[in-house]
Amino acid sequence: MQKILQLGEDLGIDIIIPVSEHPTNFILSIQIQNKDGKNIAEKLAEKGIFLSYMEGKPSSPNSKILRLSFQMDTTINDIDTFIRELRIILSPKN
Known about the structure:
Aspartate Aminotransferase, domain 1, alpha+beta, three-stranded antiparallel beta sheet, extended
């Protein structure tokens, strides 16, 4: 964090790192075994829930991840909505 602030100072630009009373890990990477992560990301996007699907090495199943980014204003309700929609997508009938 200090190096990012120093970069801003060196370049004469403002770089702001927000501080929260209730900090969270802002990026969470997950893998869902035996499921198509790209398809999951697309279905969530249809519901207005956006996350990144990343595939490092196509030959390695461990390189296929969903990357969730949380913002300072992400609420518990937002997370509950994400989990509810993910549950629907992952349910056996889908």
